[in-house]
Amino acid sequence: MKELITLIDRWESKRALVVGDFMLDQSVFGNAERLSPDAPVPVLKVVDETAAPGGAANVCRTLAALKCEVTCLGLVGDDAAGNQLVNALREAGCGTDQLIIVEGRPTIVKRNMIGLAQHRHPQKMFRVDYEDNSPLDEDFVETLFDHAVATMRQADVLLLEDYNKGLLTEDLCQRLIAEAKAANLPVYVDPAPITDYGKYRGCTCMTPNRTEAELATGCDVETETHKMATQLLNQLEMEAVALTLDRHGSLLQVAGEDPVPVPTQAREVYDVTGAGDVFFGTMAMARANGASWVDATSMANFAAGLEVEQFAMVPIPLQQIHSQLIYQQGARIGKVRTLKQLLPELEAHRWDKKRIAFTNGCFDILHAGHVELLRAARQTADLLVLAVNTDKSIRRLKGDKRPIVTEAERVMVLSELSCVDYIVLFGDDPTEDPSEKDTPVPLIRGIQPDVLIKGAQYNIEDVLGRDIVEEHGGEVVLIPHVEGMSTTNIVDKIRGQS
Predict the structure, then answer these.
(1) Could you tell me if residue 465 is left (phi over 0), alpha (psi between -120 and 50 degrees) or otherwise beta?
(2) How far is CA 237 from the centre of its chain?
(3) Where on the phi/psi map is residue 242: left (φ > 0), alpha (ψ -120 to 50), or beta?
(4) N or C: which end of the chain has fewer CB within 10 A?
(5) pLDDT at site 270
(6) What pLDDT score does 204 carry?
(7) Are 342 and 367 in contact (CB under 8 A)?
(8) What does the alpha-carbon distance between residue 324 and residue 190 come to, in Å, rounded to a whole number?
C-alpha cells in the first residue's frame, strides 16, 4: 500500500478515449411491503425516481473522478434519455462532443425497480431494458471510427467498454486496436459476456470477471483459474490479463510471467453495481501514471472495494482512494514529505473535510516549550504540518556552531510526537525567491493552511505568511510561550554561559 500512496502523490491527469455502449441507468424506488392480490408478486409503491449514466458512461465518470480528461465516443438516441445522459456526463466533467446522435435508435435505458421492505436497505426487484441491438448503418460506424482516429492523436489511453449492444463489432474493434497500436497507445478492454473474444485480439489488457471469463474460455474459475488466464493471454496476444474474482481480489498474468493473485480487502458488500467499471478505469489510469501491473491491479482492487460499499454506481474520487490509503497505511510510511509529495495528500485530507494547521521552527534541541507549542498547535485543527529548517538554513540563521543536532536526528525525534502529522524540511530550495530564503513563506503559499501557528512572543502583524493565510479565509493563532524555555538558553547553560 505504501507504493500506492507514492503513486497518487505523483499522480498526473491523463487523456482517455472511451469507446463503447453508453446507457442511462434509471432507478425507481418505492416500498414493497405487500403482494399483489391477483398474482404472487410484490407491489412496488413508487416514492422516487432517479437517473444516472450507465454502461460505458460509468467508466467515463470513473475516469473523470480520477482526474482524467475523458472523451466519450459512442451512440445515443435523439430522445429525452439521450439528452439526460449527455447532460449528466457533462456535469461529471466528461467530454461529450464525440457522442453521435442516431435518429430512430433509442438510447439504451436500464430501468431498475428497487423496493424497501420492513425498513431494510433497498433491494433490486427486477429490471426493464430498452434497447435496439440491430446492426448499425455503415455511415455511422465510419463516422465514429474517424472521430476515434482523430481523438487518439491527443490521447494517452484507449478503453473499449463492450456490452454487446451492436456497436463494438469485430471489424470495428480490430480497426481501433490497429490504429491505437500504430499510435503507440495502450488499449484496455472490458469485454462483453460472449463466447469468443477474438475481436479483442491484440489489445494491451483485458479485465473480464469470473462469469465472462468462464463463458469465453470454457474453464471452471474455481479449479482452472490459472489455465483460464494463460489461455486468454496467449490466444489474444495481450500484454496482460486481470481476472476479477470478487472478494478474492484478482488474478493477474503478464506475458512471460507466472499468474499472480492480487488480494483485496474484505468489505461490507452493499451493492456490487459499478465495481467492475471502477476496477477497469482505475487500472488503466494507474498504468498510465507509471504503476507496475501489480500495483495498478492493487489500486484497482482497492477502489472497487470502496465502490461495493455504496448503493448503485458512485464514482470513487482519487482523493477518497488517497485518503483511505493514508488512513490505513500512513503510520507505515513515516511523516516526512517533500512539498510535492505533501500537497496531494493534503488535498485528500481536505476532501475528507479536515482542517490543516502549520507551524515551523529549527527545533535544534527539543524541549518542553517545543512540545507544548506543538500540542497546542495540533488542537487547533485535524492535522499539523511541521516545517523544520535544514542544517544549512540554521547555520545561516544562527552561526556555524549551530545546529547542535542534525536535521536527520531532529526529524527522527519530532516524528515520534503524536501531535505532529507531517514534517517537511525547508531552506535549501535553489528555486526560492532570495528574499524568502530560510523563511516558511514558500511552504505556506503552497500548503495554504487553515491555521498558521506561531509563539505568542511574536506580534501577529509580524508573522510571516499571515497575509497568505488570511487571504484564503484562514487564521493566525499565537500560542503562549513557556517562560525561560528556548534552545539558545539550553545551549548557553550547557556551555556554562548562563
Answers:
(1) left
(2) 29
(3) beta
(4) C
(5) 46
(6) 98
(7) no
(8) 26
Range of the domain at 102: 2-31+45-330
Residues of the chain with pLDDT under 50: 267, 269-271
Asked if 110 and 126 sit in the same domain, the reply is: yes
Is position 100 within any domain?
yes
Instruction: Tell me what pLDDT residue 484 has.
Output: 61
- CATH number at 423 reads 3.40.50.620
**DSSP string of 193-247?**
S-S--GGGTT-SEE--BHHHHHHHH---TTT-HHHHHHHHHHHHT-SEEEEE-GG
Q: Within this chain, do residues 391 and 416 fall inside the same structural domain, yes or no?
A: yes
Q: Residue 254 has what pLDDT?
A: 96
- For residue 263, give the 3-state DSSP assignment: coil
For residue 253, being part of any structural domain is answered with yes
Residue 72's DSSP bridge partners are 18
Distances (CA, A) of 147 to 103, 115, 166, 405: 19, 42, 18, 63
Domain count, the chain: 2
Confirm whether 40 is domain-assigned: no
Residues 211 and 198 in one domain: yes
Contact 109, 121 (CB under 8 A): no
Report if residue 412 sits inside a domain: yes
Active site residues per annotation: 277
417 and 296 within one domain: no
Between the two ends of the chain, the Cα-to-Cα distance in Å is 51
- Residue 213 belongs to domain with CATH number: 3.40.1190.20
Q: State whether 323 and 339 are in the same domain.
A: no
pLDDT digits (tens, 9 = 90+) for 401-443: 889 899 999 999 999 999 999 999 999 877 778 888 899 999 9
pLDDT of residue 86: 96
